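Hi again,

Forgot to attach this to my earlier email, sorry! This is the prediction with zinc ion bound. I've pasted everything inline since the attachment limit keeps bouncing my files.
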Amino acid sequence: MKVIMLGAPGAGKGTRAALLSEKLSIPHISTGDIFRANIKNGTELGKLAQSYMDKGELVPDSLVCDLVVDRIQQPDCENGFILDGFPRTIPQAEALKEALDSIGEKLDHVINVYAPDEHIVNRMSGRRSCSQCGAVFHVEFAPSSKGDICDKCGGSLIQRDDDKPETVKKRLEVYYEQTYPLLEYYEKQGLVKTVDATGGVETALSDLLKAIGA
Ligand code: ADP
Ligand code: ZN
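C-alpha cells for the complex follow:
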C-alpha cells in the first residue's frame, strides 16, 4: 500500500505515519527525518538542507526529489511505503507520479491530517525531540516519564530549532502557500481522506485504518 501523509507542520503527521507504518509493516519515510539525520552526520546534503530548515523554508525540490525517488525503489518498499513530509510542492508530486508511472504503480491513499492552526502552534511549541534517537515527545500531551530525558534511550530532549515560535509561523505560511495546493491536486484524483488530528493519539490508529478502509 502506497500512502502519503499531508498536513500542516505539527499537525501530527509523523506520529500517525509511525503508527500506520508499524501496523502495516511498511517503511515510514520522513524527509524531515532524513534531513535531520544528514545534519547530525555532517553530510554535504545536511549542510545544504540546514540553512533552509533553520529559516522555516522548504529545501529546494532538486535536493528532495531524487532522494525520495531513490528511497521508494529500495527493496523494503516492495509492499509499499508511507511518505511523511513528501511531496510538499506540486513539482515534487509530479516527480513522484513520474517515478511511480515508470514502474507501473500508483498511489493508494493521501491522508490529510487536519488540525486548526491554534492547535498546531500549541503543539509545536511544546514538542521536544530526543537528541539521540529522534523520538518525539510533548511537554503537555505526551511527556517523557523522565522529564527532559528520553524514555526510550536516555538521551536528552531538545526543542528543534525550527519549532521555535518565529520559525513555526514561517513554516505555516510556507505550508499554505506551497503545500496546501496539493490537497486540491490529489482531491481531483479522488485520493484524499481526511483524519481529524485534534484529539489525542488513542484513536489515531483506528481513525487511520477506517480512512484507508482497512
Ligand atoms: P514538519 O512537517 O513538522 O514541518 P518535517 O520534519 O516534515 O516537519 O520537516 C522539517 C523541515 O524539513 C521543513 O520545514 C523543510 O525545511 C524540510 N523538508 C522536509 N521535507 C521536505 C520536502 N519534501 N521538501 C522541502 N523541504 C522539506
Ligand atoms: Zn531517545
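The chain has a mean pLDDT of 93. The pocket of zinc ion (ligand 2) is lined by residues 130, 132-133, 135, 150, 152-153, 155 (CB under 6 Å).

That should be everything now.

G.
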